[in-house]
Amino acid sequence: MMFTNSEIQFDLLKKRAYNLRWAAVESGVIPLTAADPDFPCAPQIGEAIAKYAKDRYFSYAPAEGYAFFKEAVANFHLNKRNINVNPDWVLAVDSAAFGIYTICKTFLNKDDEAIVFNPVDFLFKYSVEANQGVAITFPVPLNPELEIDYQLLESLITPKTKMLCLCNPLNPTGKVFTANELTIIGNIAVKYNLIILSDEIWSDIIFKPHVYTSIASINNEIKNQTVIVTGYSKSYGLAGLRVGAIIAPNENLFHQILEKSGHQSTIHGCNVLAQVAASTALNECGDWLNQFVTHLTSMRDLCVAELNKLDGFECVTPQGCYLVFPDITKTGYSAQQMQTLLLEKAKVAVVPGLGQWFGSRADGHIRISFATSEEVLQESFSRINKALKA
Questions:
Q1: Is the domain of 224 the same as that of 214?
Q2: Which of 207, 240, 272, 342 has the most C-beta neighbours closer than 10 Å?
């Protein structure tokens, strides 16, 4: 597949793409908002769903997920992440977001503390607090080239600390943690017997020369403290199918997670078509994903170049994620004011760097998703240029 403008069916996006995107904005607005591709998924995925649906049986799946899904996840992690995963310890969930929530529900009791990076996606803080835990925010650099302050990280740990939440690559800054950085973080977690919640939903979207390392692949000590959560919306465009996976390091932790998930009572669970889609993606769509990342690399470079041409904008180059997070403080506008200006004057929707979305350190930034065509981005920046010069 060529990731060109002609591949995007804008008429369908305007009917189906919600969550701040094409179907949720006024006609004429370009949404560079939620991290969800404008491109259709790989054709193999649609074909696999159609083949499954043709038999017209949609029976209950096992509470923990179909064996074919669990095996696909385990094989992927063995071959691509250098982690020996037991398929029996993989739990199919209806999204990475629910996976994060479930892990917090499993390992946090009332008033337990969890360390949450700042800035990072709001789901971590939300999930900790929704399960009566306390989110201890840890300031991290906005420049992905810089390392975190390990001494400060360790100083935040108290007898109440039970979990360390890691988002790698880091949304919204696009930082990809190196093996050395992960070793230090992992050793701190081991020292204090902390569960590492490793959100790896962005782990396929990595820009060369950077490489992805899962913290669970560092060594067995760190692996035994790590619970991985991942999903398939960012890599394969499956947001609406609601599918993700939790990977436990041992049988005991897996059964704790399964018990808290609500799957055994049928309150929650991952639907069968979603598992068919994700398994097909993992087993058959590697070439499609490689082409997607190649396209995204060009779109990243375009965004960084265009943003740095704008007066008052400063944009560092993300190492992963299809997001840019420019600093707009020198424009004199707040993030909310800039979001409003771009929406009203340029008809381009972006996400403001508000504390409620990313934490206090996101102040003075906006987030832009570039998982679209070159034509859409060029038109967006043409509009933004005119609006800011008006």
A1: yes
A2: 342
Structure tokens at 289: 């994903």
Same domain for 92 and 215, yes or no, is: yes
Each residue's pLDDT tens digit, 106-140: 999 999 999 999 999 999 999 999 999 999 999 99
Does some domain include residue 45?
no
Q: Which of 209, 194, 203, 128 is nearest to 170 (CA)?
A: 203
Strands (E), the chain: 30-31, 90-93, 113-118, 134-139, 161-167, 195-199, 226-231, 244-247, 323-324, 348-349, 351-352, 366-369
273 and 291 in a common domain: no
Residue 346 lies in domain? 5-40+286-389
Position 199, amino acid: D
The residue behind tokens 């420019």 is 326
Listed residues 267, 284, 301: the one ending a domain: 284
Q: Are residues 17 and 60 located together in one domain of the fold?
A: no
**Predicted TM-score (pTM) of this structure:** 0.97
Q: Which residues are within 8 A (CB) of 383 and not within 5 positions of it... i.e. 6 or more apart?
A: 30, 346, 347, 348
Cis upstream peptide for 209 (omega within 30°): yes
Look up residue 344 and give its DSSP letter. I
Mean pLDDT (the chain) is 97
Q: Return d(Cα 294, Cα 288) in angstroms, integer.
A: 10
